[in-house]
Write a structure and sequence with these properties.
Elements lengths: L15 H18 L9 H21 L1 H11 L19 H19 L11 H25 L4 H23 L3 H29 L19 H21 L10 H12 L4 H18 L1 H17 L6 H4 L21 H19 L10 H8 L11 H9 L1 H22 L5 H20 L9 H37 L1
Length: 493
């Protein structure tokens, strides 16, 4: 019998071969990143990899496009530091775009071969929400490009790529996925990449940077993929899947092995010193606990309330760094804002100026990407700064209608996962949906403190998993329709 990835895997449809493929892809990527330097692979090496790996990927696209999707999701979190720049001879040619093109070609080949056995694709309200948001974003970006230069610039497509790539992955997943095994392999990709990036973070902080022996912890904020704040958001998005898988099987001894990657990933999250990401992960975990067990949620809330009321919370700076300095009641002043640290105060100033910007430009915003240039008109002391809030960024740069479309999209994502959770029986799919609920909450909260939805290296897996939710819904509908037809046939008989 094939080795199991999970205990009782005969019901899961995953095997040791799937894990071996995941490690075969991720371990070399991690080995290149591990020295923590800017990686610029020689052009000849990249062309060689493209030549040999390209033939393999083309064959996979034709023979098993779902396997190619699996490999793509294993690669995408590393694409920021390993983009595959082919020497500049073609600006649009990089590993990510090649993967997307091959996935599209593979889907077309399978479609025309007549071997597609998946239930028919049905347009959903979530699809509509995605299209409306994408249309709004694209129009605003194009309008800003024309407003500034009266022509379509190449940079326009670069700006759009960060927004569009994750959604292209969403539609490809919904088109390619032919069974729930596709979703399970996508979950495996998320678990493996998250665990590996967490391990790289632990190595960077404790071995390469000296860890807590450093006096100024700001100098040892880990990055790994694309900056400490983005890395924190990455963990807020995807650690909930590890939490959900463990909590869903907490009474099974075999699943306690997942505690190890969970612990080292949480340590890596801590050493990003991203306060927003830590709060986002906590919110995601609470959403998971609420959905899993209302009684457990109440008990956790009671314990937390008791700790807060005791006034005995004391986090050492040597471990938690700037997170312990956010609020200090001994600082001079009477208001809460005066007792915040400089970074938190600055964010409040930025948000206040951003709200003024929205009030003056409520319908179309000030123009995509113009927030740093415009904020100085409202708050000179923070001129040139990012809004540090994706909701404010959308509203100020693209207008309130764009914000409404985005909020509706997030609500649809949460509702889809929440509603489907009670309709599936497969334990691994059920755990995936539970993790997805926490992931949506983590993404929403993380983007209250940063503007990271246009970072495709950390967002693509989220939208791919959203596509996975649509696949699960499709099979639930097919099962319901089949049951209804069966009942109708029995009544006719």
């Amino acid at each position: 019998m094939t080795a199991s990835v999970f205990p009782d895997s005969e019901t899961h449809g995953l095997s040791g071969k799937d894990l071996a493929i995941a490690l075969a892809v991720v371990l070399p990527l991690a080995a290149i990143i591990a020295p923590y330097r800017s990686v610029h692979l020689p052009q000849l090496f990249i062309l060689g990899v493209a030549l040999f790996g390209g033939f393999w990927c083309i064959r996979m696209a034709v023979v098993d496009v779902e396997q190619l999707l699996f490999v793509f999701l294993l690669y995408i979190p590393f694409q920021k530091v390993l983009p595959g720049d082919f020497g500049g001879f073609a600006k649009a040619v990089n590993f990510t775009n090649v993967f997307l093109l091959l996935l599209f070609m593979g889907w077309l080949a399978r479609k025309h071969s007549g071997v597609d056995t998946a239930p028919p694709r049905r347009w959903t309200l979530l699809d509509s929400a995605v299209v409306v948001f994408l249309a709004t974003t694209s129009l605003c970006v194009a309008a800003q490009s024309l407003r500034e230069t009266q022509e379509i610039r190449y940079e326009l497509f670069s700006d759009l790529k960060g927004w569009l790539t994750p959604f292209v992955a969403y539609f490809l997943v919904t088109a390619i996925g032919s069974s729930t095994k596709t979703v399970k392999k996508m979950l495996l990709a998320v678990l493996v990449t998250t665990s590996m990036i967490g391990l790289l973070g632990v190595k960077e902080f404790w071995i390469d940077m000296g860890g807590a022996t450093r006096h100024n912890l700001e100098e040892v904020r880990i990055e790994v993929t694309s900056g400490p704040s983005n890395l924190g958001a990455f963990f807020a998005y995807y650690l909930p899947y590890l939490v959900a898988l463990w909590l869903s099987n907490i009474w099974r001894i075999g699943y306690w092995a997942f505690v190890f990657p969970l612990v080292w990933c949480m340590d890596a999250l801590r050493t990003t010193f991203s306060r927003g990401a830590a709060l986002a992960f906590l919110a995601g975990v609470l959403a998971i606990v609420w959905k899993r067990s209302k009684i457990a949620f109440v008990l956790v809330a009671m314990v937390a309330a008791a700790v807060v009321q005791s006034g005995e919370i004391s986090l050492p700076y040597g471990v938690f760094g700037r997170m312990t300095e956010t609020y200090n009641p001994s600082r001079p002043g009477s208001s809460v804002s005066e007792k915040l640290d400089t970074s938190a105060k600055k964010r409040l100033v930025i948000w206040e100026g951003g709200l003024q910007m929205v009030r003056e430009h409520p319908y179309f915003g000030v123009g995509y990407g113009r927030f740093p240039r415009e904020i100085g008109r409202y708050k000179p002391e923070v001129a040139g700064m990012d809004p540090h809030n994706n909701f404010l960024k959308i509203a100020s740069e693209m207008g309130i209608p764009a914000l409404v479309s985005f909020a509706f999209l997030m609500a649809m994502c949460f509702w889809r996962g929440y509603r489907l959770y009670g309709k599936v029986e497969d334990p691994l799919v059920k755990a995936m949906l539970l993790g997805y609920i926490g992931s949506v909450v983590g993404l929403i909260v993380a983007n209250l403190f940063g503007s990271r939805l246009d970072s495709d290296e950390i967002t693509t897996q989220f939208w791919a998993m959203t596509g996975g939710v649509i696949i699960v819904e499709r099979f639930c509908r097919a099962r319901s329709d089949s049951a209804a037809e069966g009942e109708g046939g029995n009544e006719s008989a």
